[in-house]
Amino acid sequence: MAGCVLAYAECREGKIHPSTFEAVRAAGLLAEPLGLSVAAIVIGDGLDDDAGALGGYGAAKAVVVETTGAPPAPSRWARTAADVARAEQAAAVVLPASITGKELGPLLAAELDAGYLPDVTGLSVEDGAVVSKRPVYAGKAFVTVKAVSSPVVVSIRPKAFAAGEPEAGATAEIAKAELAAEEARDAKQTGFESKGGGKIELTEADIIVSGGRGMKGPENYEIIETLASLLDAAVGASRSAVDAGWRPHADQVGQTGKTVSPDLYIACGISGAIQHLAGMGSSKTIVAINKDPEAPIFKVADYGVVGDLFDCVPALTEEVKKVKE
Amino acid sequence: MNIIVCIKRVPDTETRIKVGEDGVAIDVTGVNYVLNPYDEYAVEEAIRIKEKDKSTKITVICYGPGESTKEIRTALAMGCDDGVLIKDEGASARSPDAVSSILSSAIEGREYDLLLFGKQAVDDDAGAVGAMTATRLKLPFVASINALELSEGKAVAKRDVEGGVQTFEAPLPASFSAQKGLNEPRLPALKGIMKAKKKKIEELGPGEAEDKIRVQKMEMPEQRSGGKIVGEGAEAVVELVRLLREEAKVL
User: Fold this and answer.
1) B215 lies in some domain
2) According to the model, what pLDDT value does residue A2 have?
3) Interface test with chain A among B142, B176, B235, B240, by most A beta carbons within 10 Å
4) I need a labelling partner for B234 at 20 to 30 A (CA). Which of A56, A71, A232, B49 fits?
């Protein structure tokens, strides 16, 4: 008989990242109908207090694995998590589908010889089995997928599950576990170069301002960045802008880039190729600014402005400034 | 050096997806298939290594239906040496755990220093087969790399993560999955295409593997009602901001 649903605490630069709160809540969605408790696994240095605070999101227990120095290799992390999952008799392990989470999920599933439900946007339990909903073809379709064996590893799409406010005063009981032994096959992390400190991740952003071919060149993204910084937004780009070398690939929204679902997506000079529409079509509100009234982006936009982005975007920035004052 | 690249046949990203009659997969009528775009980066990387070390032999392995010989020949035309098809007409319905078990059985016993994948296939977007196959084969694995360097029995790879760039070092044999940006894949030259046509492709059966997850239903996303034009030109932004605040409540 399984004992818990285990949530993975994602640590970035020595701190538990807020995406962890979503994972703990999502674990709760499975634990309740399964009649199990929620536990968290925290691998890091001196994180006992933060691990305890996961109780506010529903974790009854936090298994802390102390590490010092370089972060453990993904494969070693996966073996450690597999040990904890076995010891805690986890029916499911839930991870945030960040870049590292998307790597750890299948590594862990293979260690546990378990099924893997990647990047899910919905979770439920049917007849004692975990059922997930997730986008495929970058969001052009959705599938409902059932785990037909147990345990199962699940990664959750950022922003798809609400973390909500933590319950005041609730703390998780702290337990300790050891890192799995190092093996020759572990890829060692030998470097980390921090970039754009505090930069908002596209997949985690509430607002995204995106620029496409209509930007005409990399130097013109300044107007996008000005608006984005005013709105605390992330900056995105279309594939044509990335392929032209104007923006890094990390900024690309759409198939062969990132699939995003912010509260507000502002598409500037983006015509709306099918690959782009797939990647941002689940945004709550879409604004399009484009001079071609026939651009496909207007068909999905809640609010369209037909006009030259070099006039409209600075004007929008000024108007936002006015209402923010 | 021996390199194995695992590839997949997928619908072109231009494809308009429709749900098929079975309700669990796409309608394949009129769909144009291509070599998975992320696999192209893996194939290209292998070829670049071969260009530096001519003794390198590159084998592409594809698990898929019989038609996948087209995508294998694309990789051969780009410059890979040998093609292996693990033929299974039902391949597209298999789960990543089953696929990784089928691939690792086909890879075991072969000689290789590098095992490369695309970071995900653009059909099911799972991004799991590389990590799972590497784990089954007990290889070092780094996902989603955008730089790779080899020297004296080891590999150094870089990748973008949230907030920065990580560097990893792994002893060979090792496995990696390729992200866009690793290189710029070449188009096959006519000479390569002609040569690839004549190559014999090794054919294997898939053997037994159990699926640990099962697709129950496929559906289309909710249609967006969109299409409202607020106005023309810079004057329209006043009304736009009002609507975003009062109607959409996102500002």
Assistant:
1) no
2) 61
3) B240
4) A232
Mean pLDDT along residues A210-238: 97
Range of the domain at B233: 221-251
Q: Is A279 on the interface with B (CB under 8 A)?
A: no
Residues making up chain A, counted from first to last: 325
CB contacts of B144 in chain A (<8 Å) are: 99, 102-103
Q: For residue A167, what is the DSSP state?
A: P
Nearest to B208 by CA among B84, B68, B86: B86
* Chain length of chain B: 251
Of the partner residues B168, B218, B236, the one whose CB lies closest to the CB of residue A189: B168
Examine the domain organization and report whether B120 and B233 are in the same domain. no
The reply to whether residue A75 touches residue B143, judged by beta carbons under 8 angstroms, is: no
Q: What is the pLDDT of residue A197?
A: 63
CA distances from B7 to A140, A150, A280, B1, B160 (A): 22, 29, 27, 19, 23
Q: Tell me the pLDDT tens digit for each residue of A257-270.
A: 999 999 999 999 99
Residue B213 within any structural domain of the chain? no
Residues 62-81 of A with CB under 8 A from B: 73-75, 78
Establish if B216 belongs to a structural domain. Answer: no
Residues B197 and B227 in one domain: no
The percent of residues above 70 in pLDDT, for chain A, comes to 98
Q: What is the ipTM of this complex?
A: 0.95
Q: Which residues of chain B have pLDDT under 50?
A: none
Number of domains in chain B: 2
